[in-house]
Amino acid sequence: MRLMKLILGMLASLMLALVIAPTSARAQQDQNQTQQSAQAQGQNQSQSQGNAPIPAYHSPLAGLSDNGDAASADQMQPDTRPLAGAQDIAIGTLPNTHSYWEPHFDITTTGDSNPLNASGSNGWTTWTTLMAGIDLHRVSGNSNLAVTYTAGGEISNDGNSNSSILQQFGLNEKISWRRSTLTLIDQLDYVPDIAIGYGSLSGLQLPGGGSLGLQQGFLPGQAIVTPEGERLTNTAIVQDDTYLTPRSSITFVAGYSLLHYYGSDLLNMGDTIFQGGYNYQMTRKDTLAVFYRFSGYRYGNINQSINDNLAQLSYGRRVTGKLAFQIAAGPEISFLQIPISTTSGSGTGGGSSGGTGTVTLNSQRQIYWSLNSSLTYQLQRTGFVASYNHGLSGGSGVFAGAVSDSVSGAVSRQLSRVLGGGMNFGYSRNAGVDYAAATPINQSYDYWFGGANLSRPFGRDLNVSLAYQIQYQNSNVPFCIGTACETTLTRNMITLSVAWHSRPLTY
Questions:
Q1: DSSP of 179-237, one letter per residue?
Q2: What angle do CA 197, 384, 110 make, to 5 degrees?
Q3: Residue 348 DSSP SS3
Q4: Which residues in 130-160 are b (16+ Cβ under 10 Å) and which e?
Q5: Which of 175-189, 247-261, 342-356, 378-392 is predicted least confidently?
Q6: DSSP 67
Q7: How far is Cα 426 from Cα 432, in angstroms, rounded to an integer?
């Protein structure tokens, strides 16, 4: 009852703010216009020389509801990400020649119907999350660097739920020469909960509202709801693109992806990745690519290892500022290996000195089909993103390898001059691979999530958003969250967040 009153109070406070805000927002706007007019009289000729404005800050909590300026689509430069690379293609980039930095601070309150704590207790609880961070963009010579870092803590009012530390880091640097480009990417998340569909965090954003956009095959993946607890995911990528002709190029990618749990018996995983491919620009909008990817999955607390080989043919279409679509499909051949210990000779009492230990590898070959696709479509006031992926994955800390299907999508719309809204949804299915064992478990998980959010700026430095998220999971075998073991789980989250940011500060 006390929590329901708190949630109703949060909703009432937001509605009141939305009602009274237009007056203060108009006053702030008039003040800003007056200041801008005064500044314009003393400006030099730097803008007349063609320098683009510094992109506005996009709150990492605002998510897809933050569309930015609709007019900016006409200013976008064509996307140059290779189709055979580690990132999804995009609708374009905003030109920017400035170096700047932005500090920001976020406070979030979340009502959680099922906190997934170790005690297995049910009932609503609340979380308060405090985060502070800095975004940096530096342009120097042939280098273009974007870095974002956020750190904070999550505090619970429930004695059965532990407080947690949160950290997020993202880096994307491009070093360009006349015929080649070197790209360095690092994405790190240290969070207490599943990354996909988690109500409090909406994903890592780069300065200017951009995204790292790594494809699913390069991420460690967390598509199964597990008990809360500290976990670290990190993906580091080095990519080289070399142009052979004005229309063709070759791409090589090397990287390492990590999923590690602290104080848990879930499976820790490391994935060594290599990819090489060829890109061909058929027309100004259409691209073909063919590539091969090797993934070597290794697990820290189980002896199984997987060597996965994937070959795909890919097609992409880009319309700057409007559309980005890509699809890739092909065969996937995996080799699953389990060490088997045997002992020969005879022992004599207390020790192993009387026998000889040998280790052999029991190996199985599995053949799958793989498909990866993504779509981004942008209208003046509405944006839509969707993706579908099928193939072998690391297992999300539950399986030592899984056959996974995942589909996700989101719609965002600028509802009025100041109010934005959005909806997101997703589904994933993970089934354990049939490895070399006497009685395979054949366990599978189905996971759904969906939600909606509203976002409203107050002046130029403050943004308030309200979001609702639901998670549902079932399995053909009971799974345990704390002391409770069931075949289904349902979770509701209501989140109110306030994000403050400074204006871009040049240096």
A1: SEEEEEEEEEEEESS-STT-SS----EEGGGEE--B-GGGS----S------EEEEEEE
A2: 30
A3: coil
A4: ebebebbbbeeeeebbbbbebebebebebee
A5: 342-356
A6: -
A7: 20
Return the bridge partners of 491, or none: 471
* CA angle, 360 then 365 then 369, to 5°: 155
Rounded to whole angstroms, the Cα distance separating 443 from 428 reads 14
Contact 429, 412 (CB under 8 A): no
Coil, helix or strand for 192?
Answer: coil
- List the one residue out of 171, 179, 175 whose CA is nearest residue 147: 171
- Give the C-alpha separation, 178 to 58, whole Å: 32
Distance CA 340, CA 6 (A): 56
Per the CB < 8 A criterion, the answer to whether 9 and 114 are in contact is: no
Q: Quickly list H helices, 49-126.
A: none
User: Residue 271's beta-bridge partner residues?
Assistant: 257, 297
CA-nearest of 147, 28, 17, 56 to 501 is 56
Most distant pair of Cα atoms in the chain: their distance: 96
User: Token pair of 49, please?
Assistant: 């020389």
Q: What is the mean pLDDT of the chain?
A: 80
Is residue 47 predicted with pLDDT exceeding 60?
A: no
Tokens of 52: 């683009």
The C-alpha angle 25, 28, 34, rounded to 5 degrees, equals 140
Q: What digits encode the pLDDT tens for the residues 53-78?
A: 444 444 333 333 343 444 456 678 89
pTM listed for this prediction: 0.81
Whether the CB-CB separation of 64 and 424 falls below 8 Å is answered with: yes
The dihedral built from the CA positions of residue 227, 165, 67 and 206, taken in this order, carries a sign that is: negative
For residue range 191-203, list pLDDT tens digits in order.
887 767 665 454 5
Distance CA 382, CA 420 (A): 10
Of the candidates 455, 440, 346, 458, the residue with the CA atom closest to the CA atom of residue 401 = 440
The answer to whether 466 touches 454, Cβ cutoff 8 Å, is yes
Q: Is 439 helix (H, G, I), strand (E, B) or coil?
A: coil
Q: What are the structural domains, with CATH classification, of the chain?
A: 2-25+55-342+354-506 (2.40.160)
